[in-house]
Amino acid sequence: MDLRELRLDAALALLAQAGSSQAVQQRPDCTPALQELIDGLCGLCLADPLTGLSSRGHLHAVLGREIDRVLRSGESALLLMLDIDQFDAVNGTQGAAAGAALLQSVARALGACVRPMDTLARYGDAQFALLLPACQAAFGRALAERLRRAVAHTPIPTGASLRLHATLSVGGAFATQAIRSTPLLWAERARHQLCQAQSAGCDRVSIEEQPESAVSAEEKSLLFGPLPPAENS
């Protein structure tokens, strides 16, 4: 098949804008070039082009898998929603270039604080999300405070002489065996806590309390342990 017969202009333009190679244009009748095109487009769907973080769609797919893992393993996971305070004011007064520099700097500061197993994504215009698997309550709150402080202490160059300082509001919600959820509901609970932090004055953390499990160790053994041997009839 000659790829030149396909209408690939829009796809190639997207890859060129993202800085991908020009292999498809150089070898338009080569099957590996088509595979490279497909892989490149998939990469654009999984990543945010401005910050390089995971995309919102990719995060929701990961959340679904994490909910299943929590139900199987019993280990809780934490989803944090992080919003840059007063971002619209910066974008409006300093311009789009300053807003983009602010987002990229915040993304780098957040990325330097997370584990390889965590998933950090850009969730909205000035909003980020962070999934923390196998996360206990004390660790989650400590990390959320660390993220908030890291961004607050990061100077953000936006021009030859101008430097900005940003602050974050952070909200978080846990997924546990005791809470049956979906990615959308989990994200909504975390966003509710984010609104709580913003309502309290911004530049602070609000994390949903974990519910106490009413299931005893013996009951868990009966629910999730091996089946008893069948009785002879």
TrEMBL record:
Domain of life: Bacteria
Region (Disordered): 210-233
Parts of the chain that traverse the membrane: none
Cross-referenced Pfam families: GGDEF
Enzyme class of the recorded protein, top EC level: transferase
EC identifiers of the protein: 2.7.7.65
Domain spans labelled GGDEF: 75-210
Name assigned to this protein: diguanylate cyclase
Highest classification ranks of the organism: Bacteria, Pseudomonadati, Pseudomonadota, Betaproteobacteria, Burkholderiales
